[in-house]
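Tutorial, part two.
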Amino acid sequence: MFSLSYNVQRMLIISSFLFLPLLLLAAFSFYPALYLVWLSFTSWDGYSPDKPWVGMANYKEIFENREIFGVLSHNLAYFIGGIVQNILALFFALLLSRRLRGRNAFRIVLFLPYILNSVAIAYMFTYVFDAQNGSLNVLLTALGLEGLITSWLGNKHVVNISLAFISMWKFMGFNMVIYIGALQSIPEDLYEASKIDGASRFQALRYITLPSIRRILELSMLLTVSGALEVFDLPFVMTKGGPAGASETFVTKTVQTAFNFNNYGLASAMGVVLLAIVVAVITIQRKVILRGEKE
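Running the prediction step on this input gives:
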């Protein structure tokens, strides 16, 4: 070892430390992903050792069958809810970054939903949205708003909005904490200088705050888009995709295709398509957000 040059020793040490992580990454990420792609070209039923090759038939089925590809429209409610969630998170972050009495208590209250188990939240809101004795309809009755009462999980026109509201409630506190951390990293000198120059609060927000946390905004939007496309737990636990498939998402449809209909080849193709959509959307989003910036 000591007869080797410094650069060679350095590369050997670095390679030694990277070997195990790269091995684990290849075994549990790259290999399953490549195997998934291979399965997407077969008609495997999940049990038989034979995996008949069908070529592009599964992908053709996905784009021609409206019952499969059309469920992506149900994810739109989660995307809109994610945007509203980020706006509210930024609002509360700006508010709770100031020197307010009890701000830490408010931060904890808003962050608590994020640390709750998703399945527990789903069951809790099942009682909130219950059509007969749900607390939401009881509250509307007490306020004299009986005209707004509906079956929140049984009405195909509002079920996705109801589920998206739960997701928004759960993750808003997480984004708020991220934004608070970003806001606290902005030097106070910038705001003091803007006050001396006569800048209003809105101008300080527009020209100092938002540009300073632009990277964090990008990260939050990336998580929002990918999360909206990959929604699974809430519709699976609360509605099972009902009523009449109105709350099915692309992921729940994929799981149903694999485990209910034993069509693992088609389900694998759906997983590949979802991955391609997420990558494409994130790439476009980065190009739009970082337009005019150097990487």
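The mean pLDDT is 88. In part three we will examine how such features are distributed along the chain.
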